[in-house]
Amino acid sequence: MKWNFWVALVLLFLFSNEYLSKFALGLFVGDLGVSNAIDRTFQFASFSSYFFSAGFRAIPFLALAVISVKSHYRHKAAGRFALWLALFGISAFHLFGYWEMQHSLFTNERASSTAAIAVIWIPVWATILLGLGYAILRIAEQILRMFRARA
Q1: How many helices (H) and strands (E) does the chain have?
Q2: Residues ≥6 apart with Cβ < 8 Å to 18
């Protein structure tokens, strides 16, 4: 893979987090201005909480990095497209999961007492879905090879 994939992987890992989702919720759901949304986003933020969630968030990104280094998909255009699609899918899954986890903070709904567990389970589910996507890609590749061999 080229350097732009690795830069995108690192940047999306760093910024696809609960703080970006909370900022977007403040802007779009909470109807806050930019400065108020920033204040509300980082009101209780700390480096230890960021690094705690980053440890779990790293799991699917590291899995994708291993797949991109070890697999032959990086040598084909369709494979590179699949790796980019997986990267954006992982990021979107994280952002959507954190959005849903914190949505009640900006509405009249009550927050679940177990909502913080999502910090752990969102990356786990993202890794599971990445593995399923990789398995489907491998199966589709084998089926395509089988049909090419018969033709």
Answers
A1: 6, 0
A2: 53, 98, 101, 102, 119
Q: Are the C-beta atoms of 70 and 1 separated by less than 8 Å?
A: no
Query: Over the stretch 4-35, which tens digit does the pLDDT of each residue have?
Result: 999 999 999 999 988 999 999 999 998 899 99
Q: Round to the nearest angstrom and report the end-to-end CA distance of the chain.
A: 32
pTM of the shown model: 0.84
> Could you give the CA distance from residue 44 to residue 33 in angstroms, rounded to a whole number?
18
29 secondary structure, DSSP code? T
Contact 100/121 with Cβ under 8 angstroms?
no
SS3 42: coil
Task: List the structure tokens of 147.
Answer: 């049909």
